[in-house]
Design a protein that fits this description.
Elements: E1 2-6, E2 13-20, E3 27-34, E4 62-64, E5 68-69, E6 76-77, E7 82-83, E8 87-88, E9 94-97, E10 105-108, E11 112-114
Antiparallel strand pairs: 1-2, 2-3, 4-7, 4-11, 5-6, 8-9, 9-10
Length: about 120
């Protein structure tokens, strides 16, 4: 039996488990393996794609393909609005950006296309 845990705080991967003899059903030795931490020096490689399947990178400019209402405000971002200098997040379906009207905006990539 083998379990793998991934730390959400940026730590390393930890694997632990119990070796079981299937013939007798007896539990054998217990073991724990901890992968070394990267101390934030390595970035995770993740493919972030827009609605057309084009890869997005840090600093790209994107265009909205649909009018979007922004939660918590009365502002609507109109179709065709260009957002420059995007930042990638830990989620492959979201990016962070700034609009002229709204700072610290998080957008879903399914509503964007690369310019």
């Amino acid at each position: 039996m083998k379990f793998t845990f991934q730390s959400t705080t940026g730590g390393g991967r930890v694997e632990c488990g119990i070796k079981i003899d299937l013939a007798s059903g007896q539990a054998g030795e217990k073991w724990v393996y901890s992968a070394p931490r990267n101390n934030g020096k390595e970035k995770h490689v993740m493919d972030v794609k827009d609605s057309n399947g084009t890869l997005l990178n840090e600093g790209d400019a994107v265009q909205l393909i649909k009018d979007l209402k922004v939660k918590g405000t009365s502002t609507t971002l109109k179709r065709g609005t260009v957002v420059k200098n995007i930042r990638l997040t830990n989620n492959a379906d979201e990016i962070e950006c700034r609009s002229d009207k709204i700072k610290g905006l998080v957008l879903k990539t399914c509503f964007l296309k690369k310019v």
